[in-house]
Amino acid sequence: MSPTSHTHDALRTNRLASTTSPYLQQHAANPVDWWPWCPEALALAREQNRPILLSIGYSACHWCHVMAHESFEDPVTAELMNRLFVNIKVDREERPDLDRVYQTAHQLLSQRAGGWPLTVFLAPDDHTPFFAGTYFPREPRHGLPSFAQLLVGVERAWREQGAAIREQNQSLLEVLASLEPQGGAELPEAGLLDAAFHQLALSFDAEHGGFGRAPKFPHAADLELLLRRQARSAANDGDPDPRPLQMAGFTLERMIRGGLTDQLGGGFCRYSVDDEWMIPHFEKMLYDNGPLLALCCDAYTATNDPLFRDAALASADWVMREMQSPEGGYYSTLDADSEGHEGTFYVWDRDAVRARLSAAEYPLFAMVYGLDRPPNFEGRWHLHGYRTPAQAAESLGLDLPQAEALLASARATLFSAREHRIHPGRDEKILTSWNALMIKGMARAARVLDRPDYLESAEQALAFIRSTLWRDGRLLATYKDGVAHLNAYLDDYANLIKALLELLQVRWSSADLAFAIELAEVLLDEFNDAERGGFWFTGRSHESLIHRAKPLGDDSMPAGNGVAALALQRLGHLIGEVRYLEAADGTLRLAAESMRRMPHAHASLLMALDDWLDPPEMLVIRAADDRLETWQQLAQQGYRPHRLVFAIPSELTTLPGTLAAMRAGERPRIYRCRGTHCEPPVASLADL
């Protein structure tokens, strides 16, 4: 049934009131006659020959809120919008397919990077964009017209310059089509791994960590690529290159000690507005925190530095405390704003901190987190680690354990006080792909940190996906308020397979392996281009859009083609399914030219290439006694990204593919495979 305008609690609301998106619901009381993206809205634009004003954003987006307040809540602006356009509002988190297409179009039309809110004007018949921008102010400023001026100008151009716009639209569609990779006969060469490392090294900020200048994003995939390079170098070379670990470790340390991390509550913000990782854009996204949780665990196993362990614990605890729904799935985001201002929930007045902390706690806390310096955020203090606890302890004549105990006590006191503030808004929709990223992170944390409660959290989220978002042999993309809908995307399937492979290395589950295989089959049926290679972002049964992309480069999410190639290789080697390996091979061949042009932008595909060139070692342990768990833990010690360990109880006799041949015996057995080659089983870890 089509959403319709209706009255609710004596307040007129538009069609967005009946949607599942919290972002769309934020606009339900606007005087704008908003539609969600739906066949009825598209038909209306076609029938009335009115251009479509497409506005794309998300609930935690600060500038989306600003534009909504300035323009969409203004009756005069709304009257213009309603008279001149069919207005469609889209949540980019529910519809990444639309966001991906129109962000690319924006870059082509404006020759500038996009962002949110995204403002695009579409032809009413074929939905091709003819003008695009991002935020537009209420009044003209900074070289931008007012939004009202823009509306009038765009509508006039549509009426008076129709032929020229049609010509431009045709050119745009041709350029979009030309952007798609054509593929080639050759696999990417191993030298691309070196080239990516050297590109990252050139842009590395040796003073503050990270790559390039502000704004600085976490780029977890780049840091994981560096850690994997260190592990490969250590395994193959008696004198390994120390730089990859130094770059990754230093960057992650600065992010953890700095303002990007919530020093009291755990979890990472989306990006830093400065080079020092001091002042973040305060929103917290599930898709950042899942990979960063796994990365902290990896850094801890690679270095044994407790800083990374503590950051992982704080992040996982935050997720369970604030981001897991009673139904099991993980919520999407926490807003940057509270009480109408960005960062209000997180920042402090110095006198309020001093009043709450003891005489022993305050000088140390102030020295570590910068309260002994001028304010760093709009006259107030956002906690940022200017000094390490060890440096502050030495300055104050304290021993380190005493200082750390005082800091922990101070953080707990301030966290408790902060809980009484008005919290940022939480977007409580549950997205399959983002949940998959967090399931993987929680599973890694459960294994590395020996935390069964983290495993239980991950299993609850997986159970929610299976019961609610897996329907008739297909995934759905999103859930909110009892409604699961929208065809899932490449990222949903690829990341969920990867998460299941992570869970299988914590504890074996034949049901999880069967689910991973089901997902892989849909991935091939719906998304794989068997002729040219690679995976489309949308499935064959998805609605037709102006462009169908095969995303190769990482952006805020790891590229679906890279994740799919790596996950299918690992699953294919585990069960001996050649079709999965062929699909991964085709993906790498398709991506080769794009990877050569900009190696460091393809970290996810480079990790898949690394696995392809030198397949990971796979250990399958079969035992009926406590040696199953003991050997598994021993085999997983240290940072071993090129080793997968599966501990399968002896009583399980029905296993798929090549696993069926890895039978249990009277005594425990360990099977060792690399790629398609498996060795005879041995009776102990020592025999390996």
TrEMBL record:
Q: Which GO terms describe its biological process?
A: carbohydrate metabolic process
* Ranges of residues in domain Spermatogenesis-associated protein 20-like TRX: 13-176
Protein name per UniProt: DUF255 domain-containing protein
